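Appendix B, record 7
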Amino acid sequence: MHHMDAGFMARSDFKGRIAHGTPVVSIGLTASGVDPVAFSHGYDRLRYIRPVFIGDTIRTRRTDARMADDPKRPNSARLFEKVEVLNERHHTGLVCEHIHIVERRPRNG
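Structure tokens (predicted):
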């Protein structure tokens, strides 16, 4: 766990300790609002883009990307949402796709 060793990391290219990835995922992905009518179907394409340093303040940016039919639920759709975890310097530390199951609006006609 060199990324947590202050002496080792002070001599590295990063010049400081890096936060462990698991808390960045769990805190970062729950830092945004909760949609009471959507059901989380999971996450895809999770990537660590840049290091998040201990002491960074992180926030989440969510962008609706696309919708698709849910093959198992005819009255539902899948909402694929791009999620980015950013620090106070606006650097993206993590990016993933959050898949929601949502109730489909009634179709006209």
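Remarks on this record: The CA atoms of residues 43 and 98 lie 5 Å apart. The domain at 2-103 is CATH 3.10.129.10 (Thiol Ester Dehydrase; Chain A).
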